[in-house]
Amino acid sequence: MNQTPKECIALDVGGYNIRLCHMIVGKDGIPLVKKYFCDRFEPGAEVLKKYVDYIMSCQCPVYCTVPGHSVFTRCKTLPPVPEEKVEQIIRYEVQEQIPFDLDQISLDHMILEKLDGGGYGVLFAAIKRDVIAKHLNLLEAIASRVTVVNTSPLALFNWFSHLGEFSNNDERVAVINLGDETIDIVIGQNETFKFTRPLNVGGRSITAGIAEDLGIEFDKAEEVKHDPDKTWLSDPIVTTGTDGDVESQTISAMKDIVEQIKRTFAYFSSVPGGGQVDRIVLTGGGSTNAEISNYLYENLGLSVDIVDIFGDLNIESSEVNDFSNSSAVLGLALQGVNGVPLKINLLPESITTPQKSTNQVLKELVGTLIDLIVPDGDDS
Q: Quick one: which of 346, 261, 263, 334 has its CA closest to 295?
């Protein structure tokens, strides 16, 4: 009897775009994109009907991303404890660092590695439950079909892990994803997730700079940014600014991005388990234009690679030709059809289901600490 191929529909809803990837895995085990959409998105816009109609015509699970800047994501080393106690410690850790009660938070975690001596390297992610509720409300009729919510940076890691970008010996690789409003930085080493941070600056600041420097409309500047043949950073008009003696807005935007990346890399090098980044992989809007990668190489002193996003992936049907922004939705779809390193799900069992209170978590943590201090057995 032929086995039904695994399949999943992934939705990546950003501030300005919505993307859908319907992925299946055939008998050969290779993922196949059955359908790919990408559109400019506004809540309540007519374009959403296309997505609703397509999803409602399918029976497979629906996964959805939430932006990295909405999620508290950390890696932490825990001491040797019984594995069933790990969740209690993580919940206490989250409560210490997030100014909301636990009944307002959706939380998930996973053990990345078991350490010598019995400890654990863990990853945990937390988000306010009402943020998820608002995000799903944007999807209208689709929302009830969503079964998994993961954060965009973790989906990015899953996809670039699939492409083998984190498998080169002890090399620390930083994936930089250029979004419209934010930039996600994801660092991995030896197939292990190490760190993520969202930057509060994005590709639209570059586009706005191009528009001002060249005296063109924003939409036209966006086309210039994505055009691999345009040299908007090295063009004299852009380099000097329209007044000749004033630094261009494009250069100013790029300097801001570089400075934030430098601060992020410096912070990562200072944390336990961190270190110096060895290589950058650039993806997202505008990454196909060598102007950005060359500028990052010149100002960060690191090699900057632009990889084949699809690898061994085949596409059956797509409405677009530019897939530079597709990494997160591909990684999320892969989570639904294949093995991935980071299987986080931030979707609460019910948005209205109450979670354990802070007092309950503290009581359980005290019990865990007592277990660690007082050995089992007769103490007489």
A: 261
